[in-house]
Specification:
Layout lengths: L1 H9 L4 H12 L10 E5 H6 L19 E7 L2 E10 L5 H13 L5 E6 L2 H4 L31 E5 L6
Length: about 160
Amino acid sequence: QQAADLSEAYKSEYPYHDYITTAFHLGEWLNAQPEQTEIYSEQELRCNPDEFWPEWIPQSTLHRPDGYSKIIQGDKQMLFAFETELSLKSKRRYEGLVYFYEQQTTIDCVLWVVGSRGMMGSIPTGKLEPRISKTPVPTKNKTNQQKGGSKIRPFHFKGVYK
């Protein structure tokens, strides 16, 4: 019975969203995750009580990103949160997400995949502006790329088909 419950808990609610999220979150790590890295998915956040989350995961249940990755280089650690937005949501919802990330000082960068280039401008930055950059996924047209060193980075997945 417990195995059946776990199977249902890990079952995808939105398969296409989760497919894009997994591709974005794991990328080249799918076949071989580098040493000194850790990942934690939204399904793990949803299925495991927060008291069992790794200590490096923000212990807030106010919002569940689509995943986290931790990279350790020497004595430095970087924590990335992943968000996948394939359809436009309300401004209020995005403002709530920005507020969540403003409070999570342990998160170094939030990477977003968005469903269209137009959606990139819909993600408000709030007080995070000094740490935010909106960078599209590199395409053949390199003039579309922007540089920045901030916390939130929306990406547009080009050429992904349902």
